[in-house]
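Researcher: Let's do a round of design. I'm pasting the structure tokens now; please hold your answer until I've finished.
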């Protein structure tokens, strides 16, 4: 059973109204140190935006160049769709002994967690599209947050960026190897979110050292 009506924004749940109000254009511009980033990742039943579903969401907050391990979210969703072929990747079995919640409740908790933070993800289009499809199924709009992709930002850490480098989809494993990050918790949403947060901070450090970024707006210029 759905938690809210699928009619229009006027009938949207309070959490969505509060979320939408954060992007009404009246809020004060934050400095880099004041800005909260949220690194996040999803594990899914597959790669089809229409047919597949989100199995879990992991997210962790980043502020003032630090990962706040107390500021994190880990959600497991009840499985309406099951794909045995992807179990080897994410390890989430159909009848796993996990505290699973409905898609509706997971979306609410995720939206309340991220607020107006800047989202950070690796190959971000996939994760944001999967969330957007889930939101649409539940009568809500798309994510409104600004998004940064660690795959794109990573390419700018190279001393010389060639055109074919931007056509190459660097994997999270490649970032871990290059940036010397442990892969011990790969292929869990919370583990990948934490790895992405570490990668993001290391990438920012390199970009600053190379004088490729100074202000927050420079990050978006590089990622566009």
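Researcher: That's everything. Go ahead.
Model: Designed sequence:
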């Amino acid at each position: 059973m759905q938690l809210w009506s699928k009619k229009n924004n006027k009938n949207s749940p309070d959490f969505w109204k509060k979320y939408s109000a954060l992007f009404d254009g009246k809020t004060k511009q934050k400095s880099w140190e004041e800005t909260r980033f949220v690194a996040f990742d999803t594990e899914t039943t597959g790669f089809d935006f229409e047919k597949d579903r989100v199995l879990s969401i992991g997210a962790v907050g980043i502020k003032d160049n630090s990962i706040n391990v107390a500021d994190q979210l880990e959600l497991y969703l009840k499985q309406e769709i099951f794909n045995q072929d992807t179990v080897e990747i994410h390890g989430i079995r159909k009848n796993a002994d996990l505290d699973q919640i409905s898609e509706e409740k997971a979306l609410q908790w995720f939206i309340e967690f991220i607020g107006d933070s800047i989202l950070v993800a690796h190959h971000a289009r996939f994760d944001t599209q999967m969330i957007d499809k889930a939101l649409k199924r539940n009568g809500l709009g798309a994510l409104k947050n600004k998004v940064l992709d660690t795959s794109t930002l990573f390419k700018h850490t190279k001393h010389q960026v060639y055109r074919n480098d931007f056509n190459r989809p660097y994997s999270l494993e490649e970032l871990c190897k290059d940036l010397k990050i442990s892969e011990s918790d790969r292929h869990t949403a919370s583990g990948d979110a934490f790895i992405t947060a570490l990668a993001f901070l290391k990438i920012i450090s390199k970009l600053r050292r190379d004088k490729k970024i100074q202000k927050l707006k420079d990050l978006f210029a590089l990622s566009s």
